Amino acid sequence: LQPAGLPRVLDEAVAAYVARDVERRDHPWYAAAAPAARTRRRVLARVLDGVERALPALAPSPITERPPWALWHDPGAQAAYVAAERLADTLDHLVINARALGSVLASIRGELDRASVL
Q1: What does the alpha-carbon distance between residue 3 and residue 1 come to, in Å, rounded to a whole number?
Q2: Structure confidence by residue, pLDDT tens digits, 74-92
Q3: N or C terminus of the chain with fewer C-beta within 10 Å?
């Protein structure tokens, strides 16, 4: 629905938004465990975001001698997941139907693009 170069947080928010379909009883892919899985993902993202943010302060610690690949090569990813879940909540409130998704994403993308140049 959007051109290439979608900001990571928006890409992850759309994935989280679409994944919520399996929480709806009327959806063909409904899974009773889906709401609990979303809660678990949110908690893990917050915890890992805290770890990721603490890494620079832990410089002399053995934990930072060989940090996990994702924390070294993809810094800020956990913060993006935390923000993406909040953004998916916003999408839940703004998107009325599938046709509206594209225009809502374009609007949010514009806001993100403007915020990134400030």
Answers
A1: 7
A2: 777 888 889 888 888 888 8
A3: C
